[in-house]
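hey so i finally got around to running the thing on that chain from the lab meeting. sorry it took forever, my laptop kept dying and i had to restart like 3 times. anyway pasting the input first so we r on the same page abt which one it is
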Amino acid sequence: MNAYTLLSLAAYFALMVGIGIYAWAKTRADSAGYLLAGRGLGPAVTALSAGASDMSGWLLLGLPGALFASGLVEAWIAIGLTIGALANWIVVAPRLREQTERLGDALTIPQFLANRFPETGTLLRVTSAVVIVGFFTVYTASGMVGGGKLFATAFAGSLPAAGLSDYMLGIFVTAGIVLLYTMIGGFLAVSLTDFVQGMIMMTALVVMPLVIWMNTDAASALAMVPQAGYLSLTQGATLVGVISAVTWGLGYFGQPHIIVRFMAIDRVENIPRARLIGMSWMVISLAGAIAVGLAGRAYAQARGLVVEDPETIFIILSELLFHPAVTGFLYAALLAAIMSTISAQLLVSSSSLTEDFYRLFLRRRASEREAVNISRLCVGLVAAAALVIAADPESEVLGLVANAWAGFGAAFGPLILLALTWNRMTGAGAVAGLVTGAGVVAGWIALGLNKAFLGGPGLYEIVPGFFAALLAIVVVSRLTARPESASAA
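ok and heres what got predicted. didnt touch it at all, straight out
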């Protein structure tokens, strides 16, 4: 490992910790300050924080790897995500910001649901918190897997690891830095680091494909790829496959670590500006990730390069094509994608454990200082559980992300959409939708229907889960009476 690369990474780590300390100095010492930054985020920080916490290591590992291996047909996922993110900004963002403050000034999604449906408030808080902590533990593990893969591929035994494999060293370093700035600075630290990390990620995804193209005759190399329709959006695609890819976009409505950013923006009037910034960042970053996968395949084809794990193509090219100092910056971009998502997920999980378990059942009169300290403790507990899951080096980043994304999208997506827009929805309907969505996704995965469906390729579990939850909410809400005291959406 070159000294320049290590210095670049050390500078990145120092910057993240420095931001955490700055946020600690600026954050109010209460739950609203630690968990939601006092609802004071500006539009640019809100936009890039939502984007960076959304994309995770999937953006630089999973998506380029899928394009590298299978071709342009994998871009349907990016198309679906773009449509879903835009709809999320338009439909959910302004309503959630307004209603969470108006209905009891909720700090968490479970709190908002309890305030919106007081007749089943406690049950909703507990059930939704269980779903959040359960799926986020898996989701957080996917980010740690990305950190492990980076160290295992890039460092290859060049670092002293005290008996640890490079993979496990990467997991511990990634988790350790995230824990440090998240526990110190809370939501403000997470949001500010997300902003910086988002800029680093976008820069890397613009620079890398341009450099690859300058170092190889990409058009000729891609023409040599022994795979029919490699550059076609439809070649080899099936209806079920396209539906599975595009419906990733449905997941946006139910991702707590993303939509909580909408709750923290300073004013509803700033949401259109934040939407423009966020969608611009997303389109550029997704296009860059697609280009990395395709250009990386061209480079490998032209040079006879053997890539055993397609999800490591970004890491391999970072080392082959750039000066060691720039390589360190690119590694930092990958860590930025990973760490921005991990920190957001850890904070949302800890907020649910604190506000929806500890304060609800154990210490209703807990002081603000005590609640903040418990939140910090819960950050560590969730991280420890995720470490156990991530310890398997055979884990696939895209697979873990897909399962967790579907779980949240099906459990919370229809619930949040209808809670914000349908006045006739009842608390019983909310509980039915939450349980149905999570249950159908878990059952679909357990039965292997996401891998093989009706004799063909699997159908992504978010499809049955989302629509089953939607149906459950509507049917149960129609069959149950809405209390006259219930708050209108």
